[in-house]
Amino acid sequence: MYEKDHTVFVVDDDKRVRDGLTEYLEASRINVATFATGREYLDAPKPDTPSCLVLDVRLPDVDGFELQAQMSDHPRPPIIFITGHGDIPMSVRAMKLGAVDFLSKPFQEHELLAAIETALQRDWTARQERAALLELQAKLDCLSARERDVLPLVVSGLMNKQGAAKLGISEITFQIHRGNMMRKMHADSLADLVRIAGKLNIPITHSRHGN
User: Fold this and answer.
1) End-to-end CA distance of the chain
2) Does residue 179 lie within any of the structural domains?
C-alpha cells in the first residue's frame, strides 16, 4: 500500500507530535501532511488519493469528534484517533463512530503503522466501490424512460407477459425494451441485473405471483 499514491493527514496542536510523526512516518515511506487545527485541515486542498486521518481528540478550535461530525456528509478518510487524555467511554465512542483505532499517547509505533495500513486499505477499497457505483449510475442514466420502467419489473421477477401488462404495452415491445436495457446495463443474466439493481438501490416493487 505504501508504494501507491497515498497521504496520511496528521492533525495535532502539539508541534512536537507533528514533527515526530512526520519524521517517523516519512522514514517508513509514508507521505505525510500535518495541521495544527481542524480548520487548517478542512481548508487545505487534498489530493485525490487513498488517505487516512490521524486525529488528536483535543484541538484548540474543535475537538476530534466534532471535526469527524463535520465531515459526515461527505466521503472522508478513515480516522485514527490519538489522545493523551483518553478513557474507555471515549474509545468506545470513537469506534462506534467508525474510527479505525483509538490510540492513547504515548503509543507504540508499530500500533500506529498497523492502524495506518488498515485505514489506507479501507479507503482504497471505499474509493474503488464509489468508482464502480458511479459507473453503474452512468449506465442507468443512459436508459430511456421506458427502459427505466422495465428495469424494476424485470428485477422483480415478472415474466415478459406480466411486465407488458403492467406497462400497457405488447409483450414483444416489452421484450425489446428489456433486451436494450440489459445491454446498456452490461447485465449478462437476470442474476447479474439483480446484483446491479441492488447496488443502485432499485427496489423490488412487484411480485411475479401478484402478492
Assistant:
1) 50
2) yes
* Distance (Å, whole) CA 83 – CA 85: 5
Q: How many CB atoms lie within 10 A of CB 82?
A: 25
113 with 44, same domain: the answer is yes
Band of pLDDT at residue 158, cut at 50, 70 and 90: very high
Q: Report the candidate in 70, 67, 94 with the shortest Cα–Cα distance to residue 82.
A: 94
Give dist(CA 112, CA 87) in Å, integer. Answer: 18
Asked if 102 contacts 46 with a C-beta cutoff of 8 angstroms, the reply is: no
Centre a 10 Å sphere on the Cβ of residue 53 and count the other Cβ atoms it contains: 25
Domain end: 108, 132, 156, which one? 132
Quote the DSSP letter at residue 11: E
pTM of the model: 0.78
